[in-house]
Design a protein that fits this description.
Elements lengths: L5 H4 L8 E13 L3 E7 L7 E6 H4 L1 H4 L7 E10 L7 E12 L15 H6 L8 H23 L3 E2 L5 E2 L11 E2 L26 E3 L4 H11 L1 E9 L12 E10 L3 H22 L1 H10 L4 H10 L3 E4 H13 L16 H12 L3 E7 L15 E9 L3 E8 L4 H10 L4 H12 L5 E7 H9 L20
Parallel strand pairs: 3-5, 6-10, 12-13
Antiparallel strand pairs: 1-2, 1-4, 2-3, 4-5, 7-9, 8-9, 10-11, 11-16, 13-14, 14-15, 15-16
Helix pairs in contact: 5-7, 5-8, 7-9, 12-13
The structure holds 4-amino-1,4-dioxobutan-2-aminium adenosine-5'-monophosphate and magnesium ion (MG).
The site of magnesium ion (MG) has 3 residues, from β15.
C-alpha cells in the first residue's frame, strides 16, 4: 500500500478509505480498551491520531509503542469524534519499525529548554519547535531562489576553498593537507606552502562576492547561496562560524537600486513565509513570540528608512545627550555596535533602516569611494531584534582607485589580480549585498539564538554532530 503523508491525510474527507501512515510516536495515552497514538511524520506540524482497539492487538504488542518509536499503521480514515482534529485513523495493522526505550529516549516530555535541545541536536528535529523551524528553512530557501529566478538573476556557484580574503578581516579557517607536526619553514621562519595541496595558502571562503562580481560582469545579474565560514571568536546569539549567505551582484546598479533590491528581496521572503508557513508560524507565534506575525506583516507593508551613517551617528549622539545609556561610546568613525543599530531600528524609527555611506576605514577595500574622500557607498540593512541582516555596497569600478585602496588596506595584489582585471577590461558600475540566511531565519521564526535556526550549529568550541 502506498504511504500517505500526514499533511495529505489531514486534508482528506473520503472517510472509510484505507490509508497507510508512517511516522514517529509523539504520545500514547488511553485506557484499558482503547489507545490513542499521536503520530507525526514531519510533513506538517500537526499529528494524526491513531485509534487502537487494545484487544485486537494485545497489550504485549502495544507496550513498546512509546514516545519516539517509529511505526507504520494501516487503517481506515474516519471522521474524528474528539476535539482538536477532523480526521483520525482506526488501526487495522501496525508494524513497529523501531522502538525508543522510555528510560533513555531524551524527548519524553514537552517543554524542554532550547539549551537542552541544543545538546541533542541529533534528535531535536523531532520536536514541534525544530520541525517548524527546519520546514521554514526549506521554504525560505525556495523563496530566495524564486525571487531571483523570477527577476532573471542566475544562480552562480562560487568556490568554497579560496586563496583570497574578500572581507580582509583575516578571520579565515585555513585549509591544508600539510602535516601539522612537521611543518617546513624557510630561512625567515615562514611556513612553506609549495608542497601544500594547492601549492599556496588557502582557506574556507568568508564571502563569494569577489567571484560573484566576475560573473555579474558577464551574466548581468547573479546571486550566490552557499556556506560561508568565519573564524571570529564571537560567542553571540547572532554569529556562527559556518553560516549560509545569499549574495546578489548586479551590473549597472547604483546604491539606490541596490537598496531597493534589498528591501524587495526581504519583503518577498517574509511574505513567502506568511503565505506558505502558516501552521508553523502560528505555533512559533503562540509558543515563543506573540508579536511575531504582526512584526512580519509590518515589515512587508512598510518601506525601510534610508539614512546615512553620519545622520545615524547624529541621532545616537543626541540620544546619549538625552540620557540614553549605551555600553559602547558613539563617535563618528567607529563602527556601530549592535545596541546602537537596534536603538535606531527599535526605538527611534520603529522600522527597518538602511544605513549608507560609512567611513571608509571601517569598511572593505572594494567599496566605491565617495567624493568627500571620507566615506564609501556602503549599505547595511538593520532589523528589529537582529541588528545587521544585510551588508552590501556599490563597488569601486575605477581600476586605479581600487588598486590604491587595496594597497592601503594591505590586501595583497597577488591574491586579487583577477579581481582587479575586471576593472581593466570593460569595467562598469555595479552593486551587490550579502544576506545572512540565519539572520533572516531568526527574523521569520522569532527565535532569539542563531544556534536554533541552523540544524547543526558551528560555534567556538562546538562542532558536535
Ligand atoms: O557584512 P558582511 O561581512 O558582508 C559581506 O560579506 C559582503 N561580501 C557581502 C556582499 O556585499 N556581497 O556579511 C553579510 C551578512 C551580514 O549582514 C550578516 O547578515 C551575515 O552576512 N553574517 C553572519 N551571519 C552569521 N554569522 C556570522 N558570523 C556572520 N557574519 C556575517
Ligand atoms: Mg557587515
Amino acid at each position: 500500500m502506498i504511504r500517505t503523508l500526514i499533511s495529505d491525510a489531514l486534508k482528506r474527507s473520503d472517510f472509510g478509505a484505507d490509508v497507510n501512515i508512517k511516522g514517529w510516536v509523539r504520545t500514547r495515552r488511553g485506557n484499558k480498551n482503547v489507545s490513542f497514538i499521536a503520530l507525526n511524520d514531519g510533513s506538517i506540524i500537526h499529528n494524526i491520531q491513531v485509534v487502537v482497539d487494545n484487544e485486537k492487538f494485545g497489550d504485549e504488542f502495544l507496550k513498546p509503542i512509546t514516545t519516539g518509536a517509529c511505526i507504520s499503521v494501516i487503517g481506515k480514515l474516519v471522521e474524528s469524534q474528539g476535539k482538536g482534529q477532523n480526521v483520525e485513523i482506526q488501526a487495522d495493522k501496525i508494524e513497529i519499525y523501531g522502538t525508543a526505550d522510555p528510560e533513555t529516549y531524551p524527548l519524553q516530555k514537552k517543554g524542554h529548554t532550547l539549551e537542552f535541545l541544543r545538546d541533542i541536536a541529533h534528535l531535536r528535529p523531532r520536536t514541534n519547535t525544530f520541525g517548524a523551524i527546519f520546514r521554514m528553512r526549506h521554504h525560505m530557501s525556495m523563496a530566495i531562489h524564486n525571487f531571483f529566478h523570477e527577476r532573471g538573476f542566475f544562480y552562480f556557484h562560487t568556490p568554497i576553498i579560496t586563496g583570497s580574503d574578500c572581507e580582509g578581516a583575516g578571520n579565515m579557517f585555513q585549509v591544508t593537507t600539510m602535516n601539522l607536526y612537521d611543518l617546513k619553514k624557510d630561512e625567515n621562519g615562514s611556513i612553506k606552502y609549495d608542497n601544500d595541496f594547492f601549492g599556496k595558502q588557502t582557506s574556507l571562503t568568508v564571502s563569494g562576492q569577489l567571484e560573484g562580481e566576475l560573473a555579474a560582469m558577464a551574466l548581468g545579474a547573479i546571486y550566490t547561496f552557499g556556506p560561508t565560514f568565519r573564524a571570529e571568536n564571537s560567542n553571540t546569539p547572532r554569529h556562527l562560524a559556518e553560516f549560509w549567505m545569499i549574495e546578489p551582484e548586479v551590473a549597472f546598479y547604483e546604491i539606490a537600486e541596490n537598496m531597493q533590491l534589498a528591501q524587495d528581496f526581504i519583503q518577498h521572503c517574509v511574505r513567502w513565509a506568511l503565505n506558505n508557513c502558516q501552521d508553523d508560524l502560528k505555533f512559533l507565534n503562540e509558543m515563543y513570540d506573540k508579536e511575531l506575525i504582526d512584526r512580519l506583516n509590518f515589515v512587508v507593508d512598510n518601506d525601510f528608512v534610508r539614512l546615512t551613517y553620519t545622520e545615524g551617528v547624529k541621532i545616537l549622539t543626541e540620544a546619549v545627550a538625552n540620557g540614553v545609556k549605551f555600553e559602547f561610546p558613539i563617535d563618528w568613525g567607529t563602527d556601530l555596535q549592535s545596541e546602537h543599530e537596534r536603538y535606531l531600528v527599535e526605538k527611534h524609527f520603529k522600522k527597518p533602516v538602511i544605513l549608507t555611506d560609512y567611513p571608509k576605514e571601517i569598511k572593505s577595500f572594494y567599496m566605491k569611494q565617495n567624493d568627500d574622500g571620507k566615506t564609501v557607498r556602503a549599505m547595511d540593512v538593520l532589523f528589529p531584534k537582529i541588528g545587521e541582516i544585510i551588508g552590501g555596497s556599490q563597488r569601486e569600478e575605477d581600476y586605479d582607485k581600487l588598486k590604491q585602496r587595496a594597497k592601503e588596506m594591505n590586501v595583497p595584489e597577488k591574491d586579487i589580480w583577477w579581481y582587479l582585471d575586471t576593472r581593466r577590461f570593460g569595467t562598469a558600475p555595479h552593486s551587490g549585498f550579502g544576506l545572512g540566511f540565519e539572520r533572516l531565519m531568526l527574523f521569520v521564526t522569532g527565535m532569539s539564538n542563531i544556534r536554533d535556526v541552523i540544524p547543526f550549529p558551528r560555534t567556538p568550541h562546538n562542532a558536535e554532530f
